[in-house]
Design goal:
The protein is α/β, with parallel strands linked by helices. The chain has one domain: Aldolase class I (TIM Barrel). The protein is 42% helix and 14% strand. It is built from eleven helices and eight strands. Helix 3 links the parallel strand 3 and strand 4. The longest helix is centred in the last third of the chain and has 19 residues. The structure holds 1,3-dihydroxyacetonephosphate. The site of 1,3-dihydroxyacetonephosphate has 14 residues, from strand 8.
Length: 256
């Protein structure tokens, strides 16, 4: 059996000025910047990437971005490319977040291009998938998750598959305080693992980390993280404050 190292990623979304980000990252680096039990990634807004990157030097914390364009450079006003992120030693990039899908019209085809670009640039994609409340109530959860996962991973080789991180984020649980039950989450995580096994084969699929995201907090994390196929969390609200984020990292460490 392969033991997957747990991963806790903080998605700061559109929060924190450069000064606020610097203060938070200094606190985090002091509290968890040397631990190696859990992979920890922070994903600040682009404006704070540089200051966070500097503050992370010499710590075990890793830097991620919340989005990127699929081209390396060119006339794409307002966009940021993979080489630009790599220049700050970013290691991860969140792709296909439901907020990008809902508010910025991103579809699976576009997200797939970004996934392939990230992998070509040695960035690990944190690919987000998940159903809306209407889709869950219509009994379409697994169908939706399957279509998103398959389409967004098209063309990924089985050699590179273990570099991909999947985040299952039920849209109805994001920022709502409504967390999926451990059974609901584990069911979808196991289903995703099964899909990955069909696409990439068992050895590669066993290495992929599948994170849960959606109102994950220190209080509900231990149960979620104890599930067989839940390998960590993609954290929104609770990543904006050092104490709760550190508690989540500690919960992952205890669950390993
Ligand atoms: P919350 O933890 O605030 O629900 O956000 C989850 C999320 O969208 C992380 O990407």
């Amino acid at each position: 059996m392969i033991l997957r190292k747990k991963l806790i990623a903080g998605n700061w979304k559109m929060n924190k000025t450069t000064a606020d980000a610097a203060a938070l990252i200094q606190e985090l680096a002091g509290l968890i910047g040397k631990q190696t039990e859990v992979d920890v990634v922070v994903c600040p807004p682009f404006t704070a990437i540089e200051s966070v990157a500097r503050a992370l030097e010499g710590s075990t914390l890793k830097l991620g971005a919340q989005n990127m364009h699929f081209e390396s450079s060119g006339a794409f006003t307002g966009e940021v490319s993979a080489p630009m992120l790599r220049a700050f030693f970013a290691t991860h990039v969140i792709l296909g977040h439901s907020e990008r899908r809902t508010f910025f019209g991103e579809n699976d085809e576009l997200i797939n291009k970004k996934v392939l670009t990230a992998l070509r640039n040695q960035l690990r994609p944190i690919l987000c998938v998940g159903e809306t409340l209407a889709e869950r109530e219509a009994g379409a959860t697994l169908k939706v998750v399957q279509a998103q996962t398959e389409r967004c991973l098209e063309g990924v080789s089985k050699e590179l598959a273990p570099s991909v991180v999947i985040a299952y984020e039920p849209v109805w649980a994001i920022g709502t305080g409504k967390v999926a039950t451990t059974e609901q989450a584990q069911e979808v995580h196991a289903f995703i693992r099964g899909l990955l096994t069909k696409i990439f084969g068992e050895p590669a699929a066993q290495k992929v980390r599948i994170l849960y995201g959606g109102s994950m907090k220190p209080a509900n994390a231990p149960d979620l993280l104890a599930q067989k196929d839940i390998d960590g969390g993609l954290i929104g609200g609770a990543s904006l404050e050092a104490r709760s984020f550190v508690d989540l990292v500690n919960a992952a460490s205890a669950a390993k």
